[in-house]
# Entry
Amino acid sequence: MFRSIAAGACALALAGCQTIDRPDFTLAELRAASPAIRHEAGSLQDRDRFLAEVRAAGANPSDGAFDLLALSSGGANGAYGAGVLIGWTRHGDRPQFEVVTGVSIGALIAPFAFIGPDGDAALRAAFTDGRSDRLMQPRWAMALFGPGLYRGRPLRELVARAVDDDLLRRVAEGHRAGRRLYVATTSLDTRDQVIWDMGALAASGEPDARDRFIDILTAAASVPGAFPPVFVELENGGRRVRELHADGRTSANFFIAPESVLRDNLPIRTEAAATTTPGRIWVIVNGTPEERFGVSPYSGLAVASRSLESLLNSLTRTNLVATAQFARLNGFAFAATDAGELGADQPLAFQQAHMIELFELGERRAGEGQAWETNDPPLTER
# Structure
């Protein structure tokens, strides 16, 4: 899974630590430049602001239930999650989500999930028409002079093709209606999760809103070692900082709220809303958190790769258990789905045939009402 990442680390070591000069700034300067759409997970002030936004979103759900959808990372395995959403529409019981969150490939799916079935056609095309076949373009010798084995431009172009003005308009409409869309990146400067209010960005009316939307989604999907990290311009009250961001999975594979919310068991709905309307948390794991047996080659790259796979899968299982426990303590129904064996160990396999297979698996399961696992623990062996 992470062989490209490990190889990237080796390439950087051989490069003699080549770097791009960046202006120095302090943490205080970074936070002063942080706009309202940016929530730093380690900031209690930002956490409380996030909670206030989510509670407001859940105060008066249009369909009588508060629904939160969390979409995980997973690279090419995101085709499974896209298929689940479209099969769910066909099954006829896909809710309108008050809150949608996304990490990595889940961040790229999240805007389409947020706008509802109107986004299904574009979502299907994005994961089945072969546009990602040429995503992984090696940088060859240039990988020795900067982070990332693969070029970052094809990823940004892929995101830009999906994020058109119509999508931004629909996201803005959902935000103005009181719903919330969040995606996560990892700040390489603070080494912390950053949660972005993408609905507020879309609704801001700023002339560069689409470019910033694309920058953040590109950063969210930029796997360290595979793709270069992305600079995100921050501006607030005349203060400016260029913060460096990468794939949100290095902080959490999926999220329903900042980690401190789950740790301290802080309610994400008001008491009044919790007593009058049902609440449901849905998690789509793009891939699988379960381990798969395979005899490991005895090489530094293979050992590093399998060790990272094991660590990240373990973190995903821990996140699922913590989220399920949070749901029980706060009166939410909880359901999760994953791609099982087909989603194991192939996050960078962006070949069209493989992605169609994953997409059809998710579409079939959801269309037949068989996608969701609600047992405790949240994911069990199929």
Observations:
- The CA atoms of residues 6 and 301 lie 6 Å apart.
- Confidence is low (pLDDT under 50) at residues 1-17, 376-382.
